[in-house]
Amino acid sequence: MVVVLKLGGSLITEKDRRETVDEGALGAAVDAIAGSGVDDLVVVHGGGSFGHYHAEKYGVSTDAGTRDAAAATAVHAAMKRLNDAVVSRLHDAGVPALPVHPFSLCARDGAGDLTLPLDGVEAMLAEGFVPVLHGDGVVHAGKGVTVLSGDELVVRLAAGLDADRVGLCSTVPGVYDADGEVIPEIRAFADAADALGGSDATDVTGGMAGKVRSLLELGAPAHVFGPEGLEAFLAGESPGTRIRG
Ligand code: IPE
Fold first, then answer.
1. 42 lines ligand 1 (CB under 6 A)
2. pTM of the predicted structure, to 2 decimals
């Protein structure tokens, strides 16, 4: 059973304090992962106050690139610092996590298509490790370096690894409807279109609407939930919003 889990950057970092890990939230997520019996788990984490701060500073987004190598390296280095923190907390909890840095692995062509070789991730899973990827910079034909979101990685990993389940754990308990209630299930974008606005803090990779659109295209069920739902998700339950196209 392959499970792809994203820990949102806003969950594991203090989004308004530059490069600050939310130790309580990350610790709770790590404990839930350590206590779960998932065989083949791939973790992806977002940028929060690490990647997004630097991306905004240099005007880099999924669409706008930079040709300034130092700027691109600053975005990547911040994400590596956060990845180091996540991997080391996982080690402390006994999880055999290994870092995977997409910047060195991926490329995007002029049409926007992403190349993501999965041999290394597959080999890690086969050896019993837990690969930990992250939103990052990506070299982008014609644009220099742009941002690669953790959400896009989740979708690509889920498709490429034929994942059985996908989880997006963030600070909200699910996808809200127009009345602020969590929608239990989304089968088509129209189910949630009225309620989907933008993200409320600095987020160069877009908010919930984009997540829902891409998750609807997956062959596997995806679940959007908050930290209180992580244990249940890893136990095979359906906390928050279930998205299945
Ligand atoms: C962003 O990744 C990575 C960078 C800004 C370099 P995500 O877009 O997946 O991060 P969060 O989860 O929204 O913080």
1. no
2. 0.95
